[in-house]
Design a protein that fits this description.
Layout lengths: L5 E5 L6 H12 L4 E2 L8 E5 L4 H19 L1
Antiparallel strand pairs: 1-3, 2-3
Length: 71
Amino acid sequence: ELISSTVVLRTNLKVKSDDFCRELIKKYDTLLVPGSVYGLENYFRIGLGAKPEIFQAGLKNLEKFVKNYAQ
C-alpha cells in the first residue's frame, strides 16, 4: 500500500516553472507539477506516492537536471 503526499518546493533558477518542468520531462522522463498551475511561479510540486525505487530515481534525475541547468 502506498501513502500519497505532496511537497511544494521553491527554485532560485531563473526559468518559468512550466518551462522547467516541461524540460525535465523531455530530458529525464521525470514529472513535476509546475507551481504556475497554482499561481506559484518559481515553485514546483513533487508527488510522494510512487514506489521508493521510482521516487529515488526521480530525485536523482531532478538532481542531475538542476546541476546541469544551473551551470
